[in-house]
Design goal:
- This protein is mainly beta and 856 residues long.
- It has seven domains: 96 residues, no CATH class; 81 residues; 120 residues, no CATH class; 97 residues, no CATH class; 101 residues, no CATH class; 70 residues, 2-Layer Sandwich (GMP Synthetase, Chain A, domain 3); 105 residues, no CATH class.
- It has ten helices and 50 strands.
- Strands 7, 11, 12, 13, 14, 15, 16, 17, 18, 19, 20, 21, 22 and 23 form a 14-stranded antiparallel beta sheet that branches. It has a seven-stranded mixed beta sheet with strand order 30-38-34-35-36-37-31, with no helix packed on it. The protein has a six-stranded antiparallel beta sheet with strand order 39-3-4-29-1-40, with no helix packed on it.
- A hairpin with a 2-residue loop joins strand 14 and strand 15.
- The longest helix is centred in the N-terminal third of the chain and has 24 residues.
- It is elongated, with a radius of gyration of 42 Å.
Length: 856
């Protein structure tokens, strides 16, 4: 029998053996696929002897098989199906052998349950899902007080496709009046400086100027020309403008004033001199809640004093009802160092201590009158005629006596007035323009900590008390409030909410006093787990509901399980190691399906359970995870209680997290074992910080401590809550006492990705876009998730491209732009820098699609 040639040239190919180089995240273990095995079974070897053995192997026997029915139906052999069956079985076996091989090693594991089993061999317990904690504010029924019991339940308002989340009051809390006090930044302000007018700039907002580059333009403020301006955007401010424009508000509608009108603004009690102001625009009438108001834009008149600090209640805004002119017939109207002034006629309404304004085309000046008296002057053209005396002589003159007013002013008049007396007008007899209003308070960032109550409300008396400051949008911040003797409230912030607040709060504000500490989870009461048997070591019981709520407690976490045996409480511990034979303790654990078990001792380490019927009873809570209601959504009172009117949720709950994913276990578990509870290497510090409750990312680097003049360690952490403080405490206990450790909050760099995808014709582009957003920004599995992209970790454009190409229907990426903050990062390597990390939300993944012109 001679060797048969291959059916086609590729049939002679041999299967390559799998090759695995170090550092791969997946093991290649398959010997082939269905097609490979089928080809091998149907391919004759190339070195067949002409005299095969009496019992040829299958390779010899198959050399004459043909499955081509069309060429010769008479000799078609349907037994070739048996070969395909074997190829099918080989394909299945090699596929699962490869999956089993990968799940046997921590570096290549994919399934959470496999990772959990592997790290349990190391004694490492994966962190379970943690429940969020937060603070609500209670409003009381007027005239009532109440003490809310621990465990009182509140629920969130779910979004589409979501279910309500339950939170419970952590401790009994008394509530009463005052519950919400309206407040504004203190003190109120009468005068505001106008912001710059909008500038029309046609450019992509992402195309920022370079630091130090100047932008030159012309612009106007409301009602007035501002002039040429320049801006140094590197410093974040624009400088180099002309006069400053201010504004005040008046109640009602006022339109009788015109541009250029001179007004006098000053304190009502005369404690300081008034200021002369010039209207730079016609009055602007605005419609507001409750009616109308008028805005007056003005500038400070040359030669006037600066604006004093004023409020609407303490200020007067006045305009002159009368005018007068100066004596200009003969002689100068000014004398005695320009402090004595002769008017052209009588102005007996001007009295001592009044304010008068001298105005001319060259300028204006506001002065106070020291004295005013009637004076007889001579308006003739006699040689000795003057405004202060009637002429006499020989021959007798023909005097023209004129009775007029002489003013003595407290300050000498300037040259703009004295150089052209014929053009000067004097304004006096001031009258109120209208009822002044304080400026609406601007955004409050907390840097000015004093708040004033909105009358007639008053703040609660007492020393420092916990409060929530809520703004008009319903968002807020947790703080402390200290009432002062003048009725204001001084607000203090914790380190986790340091000033300036970002974003700032929008007045009017509310000070909320009745604070309720709440934690995630719904209580399951008195569940009978089973019966104890003193003859059995290490009894174990599974709780009926899961996931059990775990809560962060400092740098660690604890379960909410309260266990009683025969009515007596037993204590939860981290492990049985070191426990005495009589210690009434238990430990908790989770299985592959996130079911929670309670385990008991064996009589050597930890006591055995006493014998009894249904004597093991547990009360616990269920519900946890990273999905947390946003601010303003945890407001449903699940159990009505007398005196409790409603619930406010200005500050979002925090601290919730999902169970550790396999990717985190691959990194943290081996390192935690190597630390032996102590930090020596850089990896030790990062591993210990990563195990702190609430920490999602950790990076440790060597640094130089200038104060101690020695090497130290800087650890950057990111996560929910005050993880900096918690990580500092954990590392202080585990680190080298002779090596200074500084823990800092890692800085997120908000990323925006704008890309154009080439997609296969016929695919749903909406589904493709959503899948790409998930592949990049999913908080658990996306390329930018904490499990895959750490602090300081660099990123290549090829990684982004590979993640997108995994989405079904995506053929290629024709264009992509990577924005780090608002700056284009051209790549291909993106480097966040020490202590910084890239953060990408699904909303900032902005793909557009084009159909593949080649058909996919």
């Amino acid at each position: 029998m001679s060797a048969q040639p291959p059916i086609c040239p590729c049939d002679a190919d041999t299967l390559p053996l799998p090759t695995n180089v170090p550092g791969l995240t997946q093991i290649a273990y398959r010997a082939g696929t269905f097609r490979d095995f089928r080809r091998e079974l149907l391919t004759a070897p190339q070195n067949l002897s002409t005299d095969p053995p009496n019992d040829p192997p299958i390779e010899y026997a198959l050399t004459g098989w043909r499955a081509d029915v069309n060429s010769n139906p008479a000799v078609a052999d349907l037994a070739v199906m048996m070969v395909e069956w074997w190829a099918y079985l080989a394909d299945i076996l090699t596929f699962y052998n490869e999956r089993i091989a990968n799940e046997d090693y921590l570096g290549t594991v994919q399934l959470p349950e496999s990772a959990g089993r592997l790290v349990s061999v190391l004694g490492y317990r994966p962190r379970p899902a943690l429940g969020a904690t937060g603070t609500l504010a209670a409003l009381v029924t007027p005239g009532q007080t109440a003490t809310l019991p621990a465990g009182l339940q509140f629920q969130s308002k779910p979004g589409p496709g979501q279910t309500p989340q339950t939170y419970e009051l952590a401790a009994a809390t008394s509530i009463g009046a005052p519950d919400a006090v309206p407040a504004n930044p203190s003190p109120p302000t009468l005068v505001a400086q106008n912001p710059l007018s909008p500038i029309d700039v046609i450019m992509d907002p992402r195309e920022l100027l370079h630091p130090g580059q100047r932008l030159e333009f012309e612009t106007k403020l409301p009602g007035g020309y501002l002039g040429i301006g320049g801006g140094n955007l590197g410093g974040g401010t624009i400088i180099g403008f002309g006069e400053t424009i201010y504004n005040v508000l008046l109640q009602g509608s006022l339109s009788s004033l015109s541009i250029g009108a001179l007004l006098m603004l000053g304190p009502r009690d005369g404690s300081a001199g008034p200021t002369l102001i010039t209207l730079s625009a016609a009055p602007t009438v605005q419609t507001v809640v409750g009616g109308k108001q008028t805005q007056l834009n003005f500038s400070l008149t040359d030669g006037t004093q600066p604006l004093p600090a004023l409020t609407a209640a303490s200020a007067l805004l006045q305009r002159a009802a009368q005018t007068a002119t100066l004596w200009t017939v003969n002689g100068s109207p000014f004398s005695n160092g320009n402090t004595v002034v002769q008017l052209a006629g009588l102005a007996r309404q001007i009295r001592a201590n009044d304010w008068v304004a001298f105005t001319s085309p060259s300028g204006s000046q506001l002065v106070q009158v020291s004295s005013a008296q009637d004076m007889m002057g001579d308006a003739s053209n006699a040689s000795d005629a003057s405004p202060t005396r009637v002429s006499s002589g020989t021959p007798p003159p023909s005097p023209i006596p004129v009775l007029h007013t002489q003013l003595t002013v407290a300050a000498a008049l300037n040259g703009a007035i004295t150089n052209n007396p014929g053009a000067v007008s004097i304004l006096f007899a001031w009258q109120d323009v209208g009822t002044l209003l304080d400026q609406p308070p601007g955004p409050w960032d907390g840097r000015q900590p004093a708040l004033a109550p909105v009358q007639p409300a008053v703040f609660a008396a007492g020393n420092t008390v916990p409060i929530i400051v809520q703004d008009t949008t319903g968002t807020g911040v947790i703080a402390t409030g200290t009432s002062s003797g003048n009725g204001s409230l001084s607000v203090g912030f914790a380190s986790s909410a340091s000033t300036p607040l970002t974003p700032p709060l929008q007045p009017p504000l509310s000070i909320l006093y009745n604070l309720l500490p709440v934690t995630c989870g719904k209580t399951v009461s008195n569940e009978v787990l089973g019966s104890g048997d003193a003859t059995v070591a290490g009894q174990s019981f599974m709780l009926a509901k899961s996931p059990v709520t775990y809560l962060a407690s400092g740098a660690i976490y604890i379960s909410t399980i309260k266990l009683t045996i025969n009515g007596a409480p037993w204590t939860e511990v981290a492990s049985f190691y070191g426990q005495s034979a009589t210690a009434q303790v238990f430990v908790t654990r989770e299985d592959d399906q996130a079911n929670t078990y309670v385990d008991f001792g064996d009589g050597v380490n930890g006591a055995r359970l006493p014998t009894g019927t249904n004597n093991v009873v547990a009360t616990y809570r269920v519900g946890s995870g990273a999905a947390m209601p946003p601010a303003g959504k945890l407001t449903v009172i699940a159990q009505a209680y007398p005196g409790l009117r409603s619930i406010l949720n200005p500050v979002a709950v925090s601290g919730g997290s999902d169970a550790d994913p396999p990717s985190l276990l691959q990194w943290a578990a081996p390192r935690s074992v190597l630390t032996f509870g102590r930090a020596v290497s850089i990896d030790d510090y990062a591993a210990l910080a990563a195990q702190v409750a609430g920490v999602t990312l950790a990076q440790a680097v060597w640094s130089w401590n200038a104060s101690t003049q020695r090497a130290g360690v800087t650890v950057y952490v990111a996560g929910a809550g005050d993880v900096v403080t918690l990580a500092s405490a954990a590392l202080a206990a585990a680190g080298d006492p002779n090596r200074p450790v500084t823990v800092k909050a890692a800085i997120p760099i908000d990323v925006t990705l704008i890309m154009t995808l080439i997609v296969t014709p016929g695919f749903d582009t909406g589904v493709i876009k959503a899948s790409v957003q998930s592949a990049l920004a999913d908080p658990a599995t996306g390329l930018f998730s904490p499990a895959r992209l750490g602090i300081g970790q660099t990123l290549f454009d090829s990684q982004i491209e590979a993640a997108c190409l995994q989405v079904s229907g995506v053929v290629a990426i024709s264009a992509a732009t990577f924005y780090a903050g608002m700056t284009v990062d051209p790549g291909p390597l993106h480097v966040p820098g020490e202590g910084r990390y890239y953060s990408l939300s699904a909303a900032n993944v902005q793909p557009s699609t084009q159909v593949d012109p080649n058909g996919g």
